[in-house]
TrEMBL record:
Keywords: Cell membrane, Glycoprotein, GPI-anchor, Hydrolase, Lipoprotein, Magnesium, Membrane, Metal-binding, Phosphoprotein, Signal, Transmembrane, Transmembrane helix, Zinc. The lineage of its organism: Eukaryota, Metazoa, Ecdysozoa, Arthropoda, Chelicerata. The gene is ALPL. Binds 2 Zn(2+) ions. This is Alkaline phosphatase. GO terms for cellular component: plasma membrane; side of membrane. Mg(2+) binds at D66, H177, T179, E337. The keyword NADP does not apply.
Length: 542
């Protein structure tokens, strides 16, 4: 059912009083205090209807928007809305509708501004560590193989598998890249994805691709979707699609190893490489699926062909993963990463970054549609931010990828979105480049920067956490990034929280009876009764 504000919006559009894009005109309704008062009251009623869900989470899903800082979220929100023909500012990404929001402090043990390896380790293990390291405590030294041993951390993937849950990971990067690797790997350096990337004196350590295929918890992942075929194939193997060889120097074919290992366990396993194969996948006839859809990272969403035979979208992979994992009656854990948001930002390429963010928001909505908030905790967050800024005083409805204004110092235009640093540095004889005649909305436009660097950097401000489902209300205030794993484990009664949950008599799995009670608590009648009760208490205190 449409909300009051949506009805007003549609009415204004039909009347023609609302003009979208750069010629947007403020409606008479928005000029009236009544419009905003009614909107505030509507939001207030929505908030009053929210009742904390304290049941045990059967399923856990965490979405990580790599590099999805607050400026990115705001810009992506507007980008999505303008793509739908709206002014954009009043739009909402799917996860912005979640009832609980917190902020996460992203610094690592060693750095004020972190990398993705340390932040992912914090998110998944509940422990902060040094930048560049994966799945190890801060006692381990960067690039020092010997310091790995004795400092390995367990992750929420371990805890979920120990409790009998089916597990999966989905990413648009290589599956051995920093964020997914922190789920299953232990490495003193994030770059040790293949043996060809390891120093000669690191013979005691395994590269991340081998850990994923050979060791727990990686080898027990039911679903692995992403890119990075090259890390699993020997240098003698030629990839028929990329026309490039594998990277392994040890001669191992880890994909072949994975298939044989599953066969030896009498498990039904399938290896796929295209969107068409993913679409044809029969969840009933498969127990394990390894989908590697690119030799390297998967393509940016804007660059994919739409013929359903090449690479699947993040939404396609998310749906397929949930379909397979839902077969387990003990529930599942799934990590989904929108990994290429980060890569676009490193290039100063805002349009691709925003497109990747909207793509992840679509995947979040798909997950919400396939599960129930009554027994599934869904968390959406970022590992870190980027130095993307939203500049100037552009008017309502101004294209988010457009020009914000003209400088009163050099008389040159500048875009709404800019970066503090990065490779897109354009100074000619001490002057900024002239953007007149430039299509700043092109996917191949790279925003201007202040400080020239070969690669744009991360930013250190807090990043958002959005949550819905069992125990989602525990995400509140400003928290350490490592807190995320603790809430998810507590919600599902896994890991260190398993015994704690067993001691609590009032936390129960969702049953038909408890579901009926939960429905009653969220009903309009209960909401009205609750509000009357609060009013009586406050009145009697006077």
């Amino acid at each position: 059912m449409a909300t009051g504000r949506q009805i007003i919006f549609l009415f204004l559009v039909m009347r023609g009083t609302l003009v979208l894009g750069s010629s947007f005109k403020v409606s008479a309704a928005e000029q009236s205090p009544t419009f905003w008062f009614e909107m505030g009251q509507e939001d207030l009623q929505d908030s009053l209807r929210v009742v904390p869900n304290t049941h045990i989470a059967k399923n856990l899903i965490i979405f990580v928007g790599d590099g999805m800082g607050l400026s990115n979220v705001m810009a992506a929100r507007v980008f999505q809305g303008q793509g739908e023909g709206r002014p954009g500012e009043d739009s909402q990404l799917s996860f912005e509708k979640f009832p609980y929001v917190a902020l996460s402090k992203t610094y690592s043990v060693s750095h004020q501004v972190p990398d993705s390896a340390s932040t992912a380790t914090a998110l998944f293990s509940g422990t902060k560590t040094n930048s560049a390291t994966i799945g190890v405590s801060a006692r381990a030294k960067v690039n020092d193989c010997d310091s790995l041993f004795g400092n390995e951390l367990t992750s929420i993937l371990d805890w979920a598998q120990e409790s009998g849950k089916a597990t999966g990971l989905v990413t648009t990067t290589r599956v051995t890249h920093a964020t997914p690797a922190a789920l299953y790997g232990h490495s003193p350096h994030r770059d040790w994805e293949s043996d060809s990337k390891m120093p000669k004196n690191a013979t005691r350590c395994k590269d991340l691709a081998r850990q994923l295929m050979e060791d727990l918890p990686g080898r027990d992942l039911r679903v692995i979707f992403g890119g990075g075929r090259r890390q699993f194939k020997p240098i003698t193997h030629m990839d028929s699609v990329a026309n490039k060889t594998g990277t392994r120097l040890d001669g191992l074919d880890l994909i072949d190893y994975w298939l044989k290992e599953k066969k030896n366990r009498n498990a039904r396993a399938k290896y796929i490489t295209t969107a068409a194969e993913l679409a044809a996948l029969n969840k009933i006839s498969v127990d394990y699926v390894l989908g590697l859809f690119n030799h390297n990272h998967m393509k940016f969403e804007m660059d994919k062909k739409k013929d359903q035979v090449e690479e699947p979208s993040l939404t396609d992979m998310t749906r397929a993963a949930i379909n397979i994992l839902q077969k387990n009656n003990k529930g599942f854990f799934l990590m989904v990463e929108g990994g290429r948001i980060d890569h676009a930002h490193h290039l100063n390429n805002a349009k691709r970054a925003l497109s990747e963010t909207v793509s992840m928001a679509d995947a979040v909505q798909a997950a919400i549609n396939m599960t129930s908030s009554k027994d599934t905790l869904v968390v959406v967050t970022a590992d870190h931010s980027h130095v993307l800024t939203v500049n100037g005083y552009p008017k309502r409805g101004n294209p988010i990828l457009g020009v914000a204004g003209t400088s009163n110092k050099d008389n040159l235009t500048y875009t709404t979105l800019l970066y503090t640093n990065g490779p897109s540095y354009h100074m000619i004889n001490g002057r900024r480049r002239n953007l007149n005649g430039t299509d700043t909305g092109s996917k191949n436009f790279f925003q201007d920067v202040l400080v020239p660097l070969s690669d744009e950097t991360h930013a250190g401000e807090d990043v958002p956490i959005y949550a819905t489902g069992p125990m989602a209300h525990l995400f509140r205030g400003v928290v350490e990034q490592s807190y995320v794993a603790h809430v998810m484990a507590y919600a599902a009664c896994i890991g260190r929280n398993k015994q704690h949950c067993q001691r609590i008599g009032d936390r129960l799995p969702l049953t038909a009876a408890s579901e009926s009670s939960a429905s009653l608590l969220t009903s309009p009648v209960f909401t009205i009764m609750y509000q009357i009760f609060i009013f009586i208490i406050l009145f009697n205190r006077r």
